[in-house]
Design brief:
alpha/beta, eight-stranded mixed sheet, 307 residues
Length: 307
């Protein structure tokens, strides 16, 4: 059992460890990076924009003096970029934690595709992390952790495994987003099953941030400056993004966590990071295997658990 007295403001030392945080230059990913750096970890920011990553790195160093922060270019809409990023990440190894945080959270009414022809939301949020994880697995430390960031959208959107890429019916962004987060859950749980079967000590865990908004977050110039108008509608029950980072940070650093566990806010949308339950459809072994089949077909990439 994990302790529910976890203190996110007094993390165990992460000196000598390296964490890759996708989307670590903005939002929740930024605060995950800042908090891990504050505990002594070396951070690799994996994101599309080097300029934004430089701004984030400077901010992290201001709030965690002496922090080691590096950059790897990553565009989850491109399998070519993912392969190049994985090559770069392997050169930073061994990696103690890969935090798959980046993803698309907003969109329009039209179905769009990635550079490789995959539905954009599922392609970026689920197939992209699948590919990146497969290609960086050899660089994981023997007891490394893979943290997948999901969402409570899975509680609202009913899963349709046969339409994961929204190829049938009228496109709906929120439904596509929900599908992508069902897929993230399936990936993380199936990954843990396969790691266990391979007698690997690498662990796969999950996190969700609840509802985390800019308006209630500490200001970080050039990264988080002010809230959006929609933030005022959720401010009464939401939390800041620094708190939204806590579940992923706990999953990455709590020495008492175990592979296959899932962390989120105590009050669902806000609060301390505690262990939570996943949607049954997402967590099922049946969907886990189906997602894995679709992901391998979509990306052309397979895992090698012998490495």
């Amino acid at each position: 059992m994990t302790s529910e007295h976890w203190n996110p403001e007094n993390l165990p030392t992460q000196e000598g460890k390296t964490f890759v945080v996708t989307g670590g230059n903005a939002g929740i990913g930024y605060f995950i990076s800042e908090q891990l750096a504050g505990a002594g970890a070396r951070i690799v920011l994996a994101s599309r924009s080097e300029q934004k990553a430089e701004t984030a790195a400077a901010s992290i160093r201001r709030h965690a003096p002496g922090a080691a922060v590096e950059f790897v270019r990553l565009d989850l809409t491109s399998l070519t970029s993912i392969r190049e990023a994985a090559d770069a990440i392997r050169r930073h190894g061994p990696i103690d934690g890969l935090i798959n945080n980046a993803g698309i959270t907003t969109g329009g009414r039209e179905r769009k595709v990635t550079k490789d022809g995959l539905e954009l939301v599922v392609g970026s949020n689920a197939f992209g992390p699948f590919a990146l994880t497969a290609l960086t697995l050899p660089a994981l430390a023997p007891n490394g952790r893979i943290i997948s960031q999901t969402s409570q959208a899975t509680q609202v959107v009913k899963l349709d495994p046969a339409n994961l890429q929204s190829e049938h019916g009228k496109f709906n962004f929120f439904r596509a987003y929900g599908y992508s987060k069902h897929a993230v859950l399936a990936f993380a749980f199936e990954l843990q099953r396969r790691l266990t079967a391979a007698d690997s000590r690498v662990e796969s865990l999950l996190a969700h941030p609840g509802i985390a908004i800019d308006l209630k977050s500490p200001r970080r110039p050039g990264i988080i400056d002010r809230g959006r108008p929609s933030d005022y509608l959720t401010a009464l029950y939401a939390q800041g993004k620094e708190r939204g980072a806590w579940p992923a940070v706990r999953a990455a650093t709590d020495p008492n966590t175990k592979g296959g566990e899932y962390y989120g806010p105590r009050r669902r949308v806000a609060g301390r990071a505690v262990r939570v339950e996943a949607t049954a459809a997402s967590a099922s072994e049946e969907f886990g295997q189906e997602f894995w089949r679709q992901a391998e077909k979509a990306t052309g990439i397979t895992f090698d658990f012998r490495a």
